[in-house]
Amino acid sequence: MEQFLKWVANFSAWLWGYPLIALLLISGLYMTFKLGFFQFRHFPYIVGQTLGSIRKKPKGVGTVTPFQALTSALSSTIGAANIVGVPAAIMFGGPGAVFWMWVIAFIGMSLKFSESVLAVHYREKNEKGEYIGGPMYYMTKGLNMKWLGVWFSLALMIELIPSIMVQGNSVASTVNSTFSFPPIWTGVIIAVIMAVVVFGGIKRIGKVTEIFVPFMAIIYVGSALFILFMNLELVPDFFSTVFSYAFAPAPVIGGFAGAAIVETIRWGFARGIYSNESGLGTAPIAHAAATTDHPVRQGFWSIFGVFVDTIIVCTSTAFVVISSGVWTATDAMNDPSSLTTVAFKHYFGQFGSVLVTISLIFFVVSTILVVIFYGAKQAEFLFGLKASYGIQVVYIIAVVFGAIGAAEVIWEFLDIMLAAILIPNLIAILLLSNKVKALKTEFFTAPQYYKKDTGK
């Protein structure tokens, strides 16, 4: 059994190395070219249609507001990867990995946009009158390949069990190490909170996340910005370090062991993809419920989501870690995941450690909240509305079991199961790329959308 688990771990590491990174990069570049680099050409307009319209009444039909759909999606993507994944990328790929995180974020925007546009275009209403959609629906209705939708739904529904257990364990371990609170009670408290929120459906989740996500972002990013403004003289050095090591091998510095340029790119791409989940097919499940007058308009919100997750939150972590110099400490390689805590402690003392702990708890709890909803939508697609309530109970129980470290063996399969979700979704996006392009062209040429907004 031990040999088998070792093989699984090695296979997972290989699979999420060059094979899947190359697949995502090629797919993202293909969609970027096919859509005419619109995420670059129209970025100011996209920001105006998202951040600039938060207080405006949304156009069209839907179950939740576009902002609530975004914050629900961000609840899933802004998680432990933003806090512990970024310093790991820096330690194994060098500071230049941050640049490649930015690159894959802008390329990945085309994938995130495409899957969200398709989710809205092919969405349906369920028995409760709520709008539902996602990869399983555009695979079934757009490609007439229900078997692919079933594959995606089954894989995601099953994958979320170990995923939620890992998240639950992460929170419980963090709380226990910082506040000496028993893991079992942390798990129970989180499970109760999850039950109260998720059984209220996407409307209640949306109402919670539209308050929760900005609040947790303000705490974490605001603290990083405070450090930045108090140390403005370090900003040029930060960018100089990132850019200089992005195109050249990073030398050995203190506890940093150095990195070849290939590893720099690989770690930057891998952490960026893992953080913003572009192409994974999860975020469009939230975006499908949004009130909108055209699928492309909601697709803009998914682009803005990638920008917030990777360009703002991940960069905030990178600045604090690199500017503090903790990544060059002699013992930095011993525990790369803890470097964010060490960096904030460098600037704020013990308060910095508590700040990161609280942020991590908020990030992970919000992730659990939304992925339970994602799993429920898979059960609803496969077996009907009643089944969605049953799987939510399973997920809530998984939080408690995960908190005490139960069934750690199945955690080894997490990355392989993620690949089983990613691959069919990328297939669907590429096969439906002409539909995405047609919808994008319609939005930018029809008089009632882009032309009306811009007066052109």
Automatic annotation (TrEMBL):
Question: What InterPro entries does the annotation carry?
Answer: Na/Ala_symport (IPR001463)
Membrane topology recorded in Swiss-Prot or TrEMBL: Multi-pass membrane protein
Transmembrane stretches in the record are: 13-33, 69-93, 99-122, 143-164, 184-202, 211-230, 242-262, 303-327, 347-375, 387-407, 413-432
Superkingdom of this protein's organism: Bacteria
Compartments it resides in: Cell membrane
Q: Which family does it belong to?
A: Belongs to the alanine or glycine:cation symporter (AGCS) (TC 2.A.25) family.
Q: What is this protein called?
A: Alanine/glycine:cation symporter family protein
